[in-house]
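Subject: Sanity check before I submit

Could someone independently write out the structure tokens for this chain? I want to compare against mine line by line before I put it in a report. The sequence has 68 residues.
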Amino acid sequence: MATTGARDRTELLKNASVVTTVVDAAMEFAKGRGKSGALLLGAAAVSSRVPGFGTAASLALRAYRRLR
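---
Independent answer below. Compare away.
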């Protein structure tokens, strides 16, 4: 069973992942990349249930841009 401190850290990291993914989505919209912004907003929504999903989506999007 996890301690209260561990649960607090887990929630903080989960929330940070969602917030950073939303910030990445806002930056994409500001650059005129609507599809990428929408993808990242969806990933942020999923990340609220699956920790790290938004971060993984953001990294995958950046890797895709570098390799194309």
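---
OP: Matches mine. For the report I'm noting this point. The chain has a mean pLDDT of 88.
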